[in-house]
Amino acid sequence: MTLIPTYGVVPALGYGTFMRKGDECLACVDHAVNVGYRHFDTAAFYENEVEVGQALRGTSVAREELFVTTKVWFDHLGKGQVRASTEASLERLGMDYVDLLLIHWPSPNDEVPLPQYMEEIASLKAEGLTKNIGVSNFTKRHIDEAIAVVGASEIATNQCELNVMFHNEPIVTHCQDAGIPMTAYLPLAKGAASSGGELERIAKKHDATAAQIALSWLLGKGHIAIPSSSNLERIEQNFRAADISLSPGDTMELDALNGDRRVQPAWAPDWDVA
């Protein structure tokens, strides 16, 4: 039986639903539940909360055994809009609460003052609309400002691009120093971490796939990972990554794969380089 650790309050391995839509989303989430996933990551921006909620409600797994994350998009950070976005997400999910509510991106160019939306998201936790709060794509500056508003212990995670080929070290170190776990999105680097010489060589040693090795590396670093796939076999394979224990030598070799891959949407903040 695969046992998934919890980093802070968040199960360390979840099923990411980005780009999963309609019947495909329903089938993938249902399969992920059957495989053993209990952590599911969605967002208002993904336009699939209806399907995610429908699939989860249709299983025999009790709500309290699930860990559901959703996010507030940056166009809903103005006064009262964090609440409105959250209430709409809950309605689409068909749930009374989520387990983790994230600010998806900081306000571009600080158009909305960070204290305003951090105070509002904290109030939603106090009211029970979410059990935990966190952030996503926050730089060191944003993290420090958020800590000043709500305290580091209230920030369950900072969800950022992070994988064996892009270690995102400045923000990882900064969050770790503050006691804030990192959640890795694009944990397989858009498929680039699903193949390759070193990954495949180490995978062969462990009778595993390269993707499983890449995910195991993240878990071994204390990071949360939310891989997504529409392939039912790979959904199960990714979950079994938690069964793999890399040796110190394996980890050192994988550490050397670090590069400078990064997605760069127009609304992204100025990323930390040191």
What does this structure look like?
By secondary structure, the protein is an alpha/beta fold. The protein has one domain: Alpha-Beta Barrel (TIM Barrel), CATH 3.20.20. Helix content is 38%, strand content 13%. It is built from ten helices and ten strands. The chain has helices spanning 22-35, 49-57, 81-93, 114-126, 140-150, 169-177, 197-205, 210-220, 232-239, 248-255; strands at residues 6-7, 10-11, 15-16, 39-41, 67-72, 100-103, 133-136, 155-161, 182-185, 224-225. The protein has an eight-stranded parallel beta sheet with strand order 3-4-5-6-7-8-9-10.
Helix and strand topology:
Layout: E1 6-7, E2 10-11, E3 15-16, H1 22-35, E4 39-41, H2 49-57, E5 67-72, H3 81-93, E6 100-103, H4 114-126, E7 133-136, H5 140-150, E8 155-161, H6 169-177, E9 182-185, H7 197-205, H8 210-220, E10 224-225, H9 232-239, H10 248-255
Parallel strand pairs: 3-4, 4-5, 5-6, 6-7, 7-8, 8-9, 9-10
Antiparallel strand pairs: 1-2
Helix pairs in contact: 1-2, 1-9, 2-3, 4-5, 7-8
Beta content comes to 5-15%
Look at the structure and give the CATH class: Alpha Beta
Write down the overall geometry.
globular
Q: Which stretches are low in confidence, meaning pLDDT under 50 for 5 or more residues running? A: none
Residues in helices, as a percent range: 25-40%
The arrangement of helices and strands along the chain is EEEHEHEHEHEHEHEHHEHH
**First-last Cα distance:** 40 Å
The biggest beta sheet is recorded as: 8 strands, parallel
Strand order of the largest sheet: 3-4-5-6-7-8-9-10
Oligomer designation = single chain
* Count of individual beta strands: 10
Please give the count of helices.
10
The CATH architecture would be Alpha-Beta Barrel
CATH names the topology as TIM Barrel
**How does the helix and strand content classify structurally?**
alpha/beta
Rg is: 18 Å
